[in-house]
Amino acid sequence: MKKRLILFTGILLTTILMISSFVPNGGFAASAGSNVNNIDLTEVDNIISNYDTGEDTSVGISNYYDTGETPSVTTLDNGKVVEVHNGSGNLYYRVGEYEDGEINWGPSIKYDTGEMPFVTTLDNGDVLELHGGKNNNNLYYHIGEYEDGEINWGPSIKYDTGERPIAIVLDNGEILELHRSSKDNKMYYNFYKYEDERINRYSGEQYDKGKHQSVTVLDNGDLLEVHRGSKDNNNLYYQIGKIKDGKINWSANTIYGTGEYPKVTVLDDGDILEVHGSGGSSTDVHYRLGEYDDMGEITWGPSTSYDSGTQPSVTFLDNGLLLEVHKGRGNKDLSYRLGFYTDSSLFWAPRK
Question: Which domain of life is it from (predicted)?
Answer without folding.
Answer: Bacteria
